[in-house]
Design the sequence.
């Protein structure tokens, strides 16, 4: 059974940074792309970023480009989301997701339980 | 960027009724690269359908997906109380991300 466990959320001031982690078990992590998807309070899902299985490519939503960075450590079965220059509108539950493929067109096959990020002074 | 529009916003039905949820795309979704997710209150999303009509592992057969091009449908053949949730469609057809979500359809039980 595939398990994804996010951590690192919390309350942070505008302009500050936060790093989220997502540990994956039950699957060969290095064979799959990994995503981050967020959900603002009471709102819908917003795709944030994806990294290919080997770290060779990464893509971002326009809303976070230049501020957020995805990375992965295949030796630790973990994907990270470094969030810099945080804004109030970044407040959301952040879900990590395992892609259905290593690269290319894919859906999110498994989801973590999410970690809450609140950006507030 | 492909924009997905879901309708209706809210669907209120009785147990045993058939639920029909729609997802329209602003341009053709090639290879029917469209997925449906279910999000129950207080829970993470769960994959229901991928490639427009393939059921994910463990999903009951009362859930089915259909459609092609710009018009897609999720059907729940006989609604059960446990199906109360928000349902999202997502396209992954774009040659590169973002792979956008629809705004969701909320399914309620009368």
Sequence:
């Amino acid at each position: 059974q595939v398990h994804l466990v996010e951590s690192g959320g919390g309350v942070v001031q505008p302009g500050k940074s936060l790093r989220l982690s997502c540990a994956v078990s039950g699957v060969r992590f290095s064979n799959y792309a990994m995503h981050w998807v967020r959900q603002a309070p009471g709102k819908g899902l917003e795709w944030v970023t994806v990294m290919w299985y080997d770290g060779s490519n990464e893509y971002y939503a326009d809303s976070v480009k230049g501020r957020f960075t995805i990375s992965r450590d295949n030796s630790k079965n973990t994907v990270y989301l470094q969030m810099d220059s945080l804004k109030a509108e970044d407040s959301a539950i952040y879900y990590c997701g395992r892609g259905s493929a290593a690269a290319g067109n894919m859906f999110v096959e498994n989801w973590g339980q999410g970690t809450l990020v609140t950006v507030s002074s | 960027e492909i924009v997905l529009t879901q309708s209706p916003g809210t669907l209120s039905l009785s147990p045993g009724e058939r639920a029909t949820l729609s997802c329209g795309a602003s341009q053709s979704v090639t290879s029917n690269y469209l997925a449906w997710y279910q999000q129950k209150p207080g829970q993470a999303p769960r994959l229901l359908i991928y490639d427009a009509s393939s059921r994910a592992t463990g999903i009951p057969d009362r859930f089915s997906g259909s459609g092609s091009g710009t018009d897609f449908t999720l059907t729940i053949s006989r609604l059960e109380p446990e199906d109360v949730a928000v349902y999202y469609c997502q396209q992954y057809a774009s040659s590169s991300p973002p792979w956008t979500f629809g705004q969701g359809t909320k399914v309620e039980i009368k």
